[in-house]
């Protein structure tokens, strides 16, 4: 039996089992050693292949797609440093709990550690950032080896998705010749009609005794808060709104919590809590009796201060499976249960749990006050650009937000709306790398996506625009260009490192992005007013392709404007809180 025949059946069985296990998309970075995998994926009728030349961009493209589709996406690359370029996206996927099946081609064992070209140590190269690593056996056609190939594929897809989702890596040592023969008979034939390793996972819930023990701790506490941090499950909306109504308890809703958008009741959603908690005096006047948090730690730094200043309160974190996501290191009670089910159970078994109405009314008044404040003004500021986006974004759209200042402006200015859209971002490792690629991946299946990001983040991933051009992806991009790292103007470095601030932190680019947008076949507009932004967004949503809308601002003026608004909010908040 020839090597080519062994290779063909072995790889075909593996790829076919991935398809049976629910993999519908693969992102391929071209290369020689990965030829068997790339060609076999391209040949399979049930898996759509996407080609992305830049491995770093490819991995973030797959991550964005997996996040939007809520299912694993496969990645394929050749050996050597190509595999290393996947690393940033794999780290992000691990921390943000996004399922990826990473398939790295490798030199066979005899060509390792002997100076062969394009051969590096790929064994467990992603360390603890993958849920599972496996070095595949060399291709064979024995029945046991074909079953082995299927079992590893099935296990990889299931492991990536089960529990807290995340990336897995399978490393493929492959000998030449590398081209499969797709004329061979029955290369896709499976020994079973079902998935090789069928997986059934139940929802974790508390029994009545466990629930009673939790709620008993809360019985005499009448000034509580529900907090929802970054998470992608829109199914949590209705259940957390129901619990909030039953208890008459405020919900502090992070912009990535999916609680600020959708058809559920927003009566108790406090989306302006970041602005409210900016002042230490206001924070001290709003000390709660307890906090129950769902999702990851919120974006808001004032909320983190709020937690650190109140280490003695009862703090509960609900996780669907496992994990210890509490960076303030406060004494925390963990509940491992499906968050939506926990809310439903708590609402059903919580007679007498209603909060003090004055406590809840105070939060509602503060929230309404801040909403009115941010509605003022007609200038084209970074914050009001988000307010316009908040007004015009439509049902079923996805807003992908870059890190640094854009996510914080969305936290501040994107108020609760009834339109059923999703807000997403790469908040696992909070980096600026791969943001365009992630948004493009989220838009690849036809969903309308708006990307909001800063000029440094845009520059950092310009290669991501190639996939947008290549596949005709509909993507609207708003670039907030303050010519550098705007977030550093709010940090101590701006005052304490004044002699070196611009070079080390401000990092002005002085680039005309119109040329890059033109190179990638996109439409570019420089926005001059809020009305201009509104009309351009509406026009972009009615047309297809790549649209880049650039909003130019001044870093120093923006920081000063924000501080002025926060000072005014502090005065109003202290008055409402009775502290003046």
Automatic annotation (TrEMBL):
Every copy of the Menaquinone biosynthesis protein MenD middle domain together lies at 220-401
Q: Which CDD domains match?
A: TPP_PYR_MenD (cd07037), TPP_SHCHC_synthase (cd02009)
Enzyme class name: transferase
| Record InterPro entries | DHS-like_NAD/FAD-binding_dom, MenaQ_synth_MenD, MenD_middle, THDP-binding, Thiamin_PyroP_enz_TPP-bd_dom, TPP_enzyme_TPP-bd
Manner of cofactor binding, per the entry note: Binds 1 thiamine pyrophosphate per subunit.
E.C. no: 2.2.1.9
The superkingdom listed in its UniProt entry is Bacteria
The cofactors it requires, by name, are:
thiamine diphosphate; Mg(2+); Mn(2+)
What keywords sit in the KW lines?
Magnesium, Manganese, Menaquinone biosynthesis, Metal-binding, Thiamine pyrophosphate, Transferase
Q: In which pathway does it act?
A: Quinol/quinone metabolism; 1,4-dihydroxy-2-naphthoate biosynthesis; 1,4-dihydroxy-2-naphthoate from chorismate: step 2/7; Quinol/quinone metabolism; menaquinone biosynthesis
Query: Which segments constitute the Thiamine pyrophosphate enzyme N-terminal TPP-binding domain?
Result: 13-125
**All copies of domain Thiamine pyrophosphate enzyme TPP-binding, residue ranges:** 435-551
- Alphabetized Pfam families for the sequence: TPP_enzyme_C (PF02775), TPP_enzyme_M_2 (PF16582), TPP_enzyme_N (PF02776)
Please give the catalytic activity noted in the UniProt record: isochorismate + 2-oxoglutarate + H(+) = 5-enolpyruvoyl-6-hydroxy-2-succinyl-cyclohex-3-ene-1-carboxylate + CO2
Oligomer status and interactors: Homodimer.
Would you identify the family this protein belongs to, as annotated?
Belongs to the TPP enzyme family. MenD subfamily.
Biological function:
Catalyzes the thiamine diphosphate-dependent decarboxylation of 2-oxoglutarate and the subsequent addition of the resulting succinic semialdehyde-thiamine pyrophosphate anion to isochorismate to yield 2-succinyl-5-enolpyruvyl-6-hydroxy-3-cyclohexene-1-carboxylate (SEPHCHC).
The UniProt entry, under NCBIfam families, shows: menD
Task: Name the chain's protein.
Answer: 2-succinyl-5-enolpyruvyl-6-hydroxy-3-cyclohexene-1-carboxylate synthase
Native organism taxonomy: Bacteria, Bacillati, Bacillota, Bacilli, Bacillales
């Amino acid at each position: 039996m020839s090597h080519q025949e062994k290779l063909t059946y072995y790889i075909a069985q593996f790829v076919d089992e991935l398809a049976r296990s629910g993999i519908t998309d693969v992102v391929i970075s071209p290369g020689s050693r990965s030829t068997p995998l790339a060609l076999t994926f391209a040949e399979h009728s049930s898996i759509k292949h996407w080609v992305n030349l830049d491995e770093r961009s490819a991995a973030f493209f797959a991550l964005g797609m997996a996040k939007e589709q809520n299912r694993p996406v496969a990645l394929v690359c050749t050996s050597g440093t190509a595999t290393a370029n996947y690393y940033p996206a794999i780290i992000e996927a691990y921390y943000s709990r996004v399922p990826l099946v990473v398939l790295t081609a490798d030199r066979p064992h005899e060509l390792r550690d002997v100076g062969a070209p394009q051969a590096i140590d790929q064994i467990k190269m992603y360390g603890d950032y993958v849920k599972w690593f496996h070095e595949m056996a060399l291709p064979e056609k024995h029945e046991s080896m074909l079953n082995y190939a299927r079992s590893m594929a099935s296990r990889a897809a299931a492991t990536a998705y089960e529990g807290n989702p995340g990336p897995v890596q399978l490393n493929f040592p492959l000998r030449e010749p590398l081209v499969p023969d797709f004329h061979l008979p029955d290369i896709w034939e499976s020994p079973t009609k079902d998935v090789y390793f069928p997986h059934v996972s139940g929802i974790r819930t508390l029994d009545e005794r466990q629930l009673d023990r939790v709620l008993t701790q809360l019985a005499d506490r009448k000034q509580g808060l529900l907090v929802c941090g970054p998470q992608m499950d829109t199914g949590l909306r209705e259940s957390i709104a129901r619990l909030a109504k039953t208890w008459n308890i405020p919900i502090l809703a992070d912009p990535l919590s999916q609680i600020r958008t959708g058809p559920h009741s927003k009566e108790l959603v406090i989306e302006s809590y970041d602005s409210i908690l900016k002042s230490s005096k206001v924070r001290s006047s709003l000390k709660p009796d307890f906090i129950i948090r769902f999702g990851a730690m919120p974006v808001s730094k004032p909320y983190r201060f709020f937690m650190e200043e109140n280490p003695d309160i009862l703090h509960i974190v609900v996780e669907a499976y496992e994990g210890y996501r509490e960076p303030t290191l406060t004494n925390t009670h963990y509940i491992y249960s499906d968050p939506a089910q926990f809310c439903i159970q708590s609402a059903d078994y919580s007679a007498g749990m209603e909060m003090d109405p004055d406590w809840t009314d105070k939060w509602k008044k503060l929230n309404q006050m801040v909403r009115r404040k941010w509605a003022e003004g007609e200038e084209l500021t970074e914050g009001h650009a988000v307010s316009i986006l908040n007004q015009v974004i439509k049902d079923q759209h996805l807003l992908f937000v870059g890190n640094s200042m854009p996510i914080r402006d969305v936290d501040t200015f994107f108020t609760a709306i009834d339109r059923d859209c999703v807000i997403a971002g790469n908040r696992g490792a909070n980096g600026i790398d791969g943001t365009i690629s992630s948004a493009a991946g989220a838009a690849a299946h036809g969903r309308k996506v708006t990307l909001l990001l800063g000029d440094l983040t845009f520059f950092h991933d310009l290669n991501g625009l190639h996939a947008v051009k290549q596949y005709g992806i509909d993507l609207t991009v708003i670039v907030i260009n303050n010519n550098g790292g705007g977030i550093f103007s709010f940090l101590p470095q701006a005052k304490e490192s004044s002699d070196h601030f611009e070079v080390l932190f401000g990092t002005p680019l002085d680039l005309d992005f119109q040329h890059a947008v033109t190179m990638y076949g996109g439409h570019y507009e420089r926005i001059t007013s809020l009305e201009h932004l509104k009309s351009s967004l509406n026009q972009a949503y009615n047309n297809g392709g790549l649209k880049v809308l650039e909003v130019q601002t001044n870093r120093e003026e923006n920081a000063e404007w924000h501080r002025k608004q926060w000072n005014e909010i502090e005065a109003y908040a202290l008055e409402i809180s009775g502290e003046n």
